[in-house]
Amino acid sequence: MPKVLISADMEGISGVVHPVETNPDRYDYERGRALMTAEVNAVIAGVLDAEPSAEVLVANAHGPFRNLLPEDLDQRVRLVRGRPRPLGMLGGLGTGMDAVLFVGYHARVGAGPAVLAHTMSDAVLGVRLNGREVGEIGLNAALAGHYGAPVVLLSGDDVACAELRELVPGASTVAVKRALGQAAAEALHPAVARDRLRQEAAAAVARRAQIPPMSITGPVLLEVDLYAPATVDTAMLIPGVERAAGARTVTFTGHDVAEICDVVQLLVLLAQVKPG
Q1: Can you name the CATH fold of 3-124+135-210?
Q2: Residue 187: which residues within 8 A CB-CB, separation 6 or more?
Q3: Out of 22, 143, 164, 225, which could bridge 154 as a Cys pair, Cβ 3.0 to 4.6 Å?
Q4: Would the pTM count as exceeding 0.90?
Q5: How far apart are the C-alpha atoms of 138 and 100, rounded to whole Å?
Q6: How far is CA 38 from CA 46, 74, 121, in A?
Q7: How do the domains of the chain map onto residue ranges?
């Protein structure tokens, strides 16, 4: 029985272009939640079209990790919800996972024009692994690869799709919108996007054995550029974290990608704590 993890973010959902649609305290958030849940359901349907006996986990992976509408989600899956939690956006991942799918993902900070591009938080200005700039796509693809799982599909804007293809050339992508800027896009109708997602998810899962997991062998050098110097000061309390040249960059050398991703999660959480 195959095991499949679907990691669902929000900024890369068709029709979503602005923070009012992704932030819980903004007026159009409920519409964004509904669009997100519907696209995840389309991917679930595709996975189960290809593998009716698959065990499917869905990791809610946006903001507070409480965006998907549980009562509207396909009843055949289990939902990983809430934060903080082990493995962050890939909560539920472990050894023996056969495929990972990224739904509604966005491009990394600095990419563009790309819809709602950022990396983890506005507090982060850049992330590098062994000198290579990565965003959430790269971090999570590497984390999946650490556990032996290939990322077989990504949906989002055209820039996010290109970002995954550079890292995992064999992966399938579905561009549900073409970025025109940070808060503008030319988007598919949501129903059309869902039809394409269902078809591509089925095809991607069916050929999962042909897609090698992304591999980064340890040790791994992490560099993170942080917006606030005060966050850098606080980060110095994490064992192994060092201040690099300049006021805003910290470094950490981890044994493997899993350790690196834990440190990135912790840095993002520290950035949310007000000093004093």
Answers
A1: Rossmann fold (3.40.50)
A2: 14, 15, 17, 176, 177, 178, 193
A3: 164
A4: yes
A5: 13
A6: 13, 9, 25
A7: 3-124+135-210, 220-271
Of 193, 265, 185, 191, nearest to 21 by C-alpha is 185
| Partners of residue 55 on adjacent β-strands | 3
How many CA atoms does the CB half-sphere of 161 hold within 13 Å?
Answer: 13
Task: Report, as residue numbers or ranges, the catalytic residues.
Answer: 118
CA dist 51 and 14 (Å) reads: 25
Segment holding 3, helix H or strand E: strand 3-8
Encoded tokens for 24: 């819980």
CA distance 251 to 235: 10
Q: Which SS3 state, helix, strand or coil, does residue 44 take?
A: helix
pLDDT at 216: 95
Tell me, what's the pLDDT at 112? 83
Which tokens go with 177? 């919108």
Task: Indicate the SS3 state at residue 191.
Answer: helix
Say how far apart CA 82 and CA 88 lie, in whole Å. Answer: 10
Q: Which residues of the chain have pLDDT under 50?
A: none
Alpha helix (H) ranges present in the chain?
29-50, 136-146, 158-167, 190-206, 229-235, 257-271
What is the per-residue pLDDT for 119? Answer: 97
The 10s digit of each residue's pLDDT in 221-265 is 999 999 999 999 999 999 999 999 778 999 999 999 999 999 999
CA distances, 275 to each of 91, 158, 167, 256 (Å):
29, 38, 37, 30
Using DSSP, how many helices (H) and how many strands (E) does the chain show? 6, 12
